[in-house]
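Onboarding guide, step 5: your first structure request.
Type a short instruction followed by the sequence, for example:

Predict the 3D structure of this protein.
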Amino acid sequence: MSKNVYIVGFGKAVLGMAAVLESKIREHIIDGIISVPIGMSAAYETELKEIKKLKIYEGASNNIPDENSLLAATKISELITLLKETDLLIVLISGGGSALLPAPKPPLSLSEKQKVISLLTSKGANIEELNAVRKQLSTLKGGNLALLAKPAKVISLILSDIIGDPIGMIASGPTVQNSDSPSLALSIIEKYDIVNQLPKSAIQILKNASNNNEIKEKFSHVNNFIIGNNETALRAASRAANDLNYQSIILSNKLKGIASTTGKNLISLVSAVMQNKVELCGEIIKKLELPSYCKDILLNNLLQDQRKNICLLLGGETTVEVHGSGIGGRNQELSLAAALELHVQKHHNIILLSAGTDGIDGPTCAAGALASTSLMKEALKKD
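The system replies with structure tokens like these:
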């Protein structure tokens, strides 16, 4: 290993990643900066004790880029531009990294970029669409961070939060060569009909990008590694369920759709399973937009041991269409919809947990929420 190691990181999980990494290679580390959500240092006091050589910046309140995360991105840029060929840059990336590494392309201001992302989010744009736009509006995303670090070697350790693990989309791919069509970002803006609501500077940058046919730079100095993803979390959850004497079934890691609709459909699916309504199971699986083979997985596993309690596991990423000014994340919205459906169907032996693997759900300090008939009864009593 090079004796001159530099570390930068951004995302909801990188404080823990950085703590472990520094404990392993501390003697080689020269300097480093990590950008994490506000409140992470207080929440991870044990991990914080392991971090002695890295500077920690907290920002992105409510998962929206802010002045604090902009400062962190600026400091990261300043650090990596000084690297030499003999240096090694290790980049730690996890979900939430996009908001924690804002570096708007001039003349776009941070507040203008915030408006673009907020508008897209409120319209229900998925993570792939958000990141495609972010890449074109940033000086660090879409592989630009890796290019800025040249001629140093770059190793990225990535925790994936996107279905299918497209490394160019995770945190908007700061160390991955941008393979998007130049016109993709502009077409997304047009799809959601928000062109007239966006700052002129943003529109101009996206139009310039759509007309850009420049030769791509080589990324031979970069190695990207997925070290954890949704499938990893599902396997761990399955082992834990088995240890608790549940029959665990991993149905899919491709769950998506509108959170509220998905929550309702998941309860309907479990209800159909409990009543042995095979055809209805197939219909609901279609509504959930899951692969057709999920029906076979479900039914084949249920025949194994009908005496055991069942733990049905799904992973993926749902979206939320924002209405009003309430707070919460996709997991809490999914759980609330599930709770309402449980209350309607009067199921007393179904419990649903929807949680984010990074421990943060939307602009809240909760990872998600539980839903059950008993919890609904308690809530209605309080009202």
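Each response can be followed by summary notes, for example: The CA atoms of residues 264 and 338 lie 5 Å apart.
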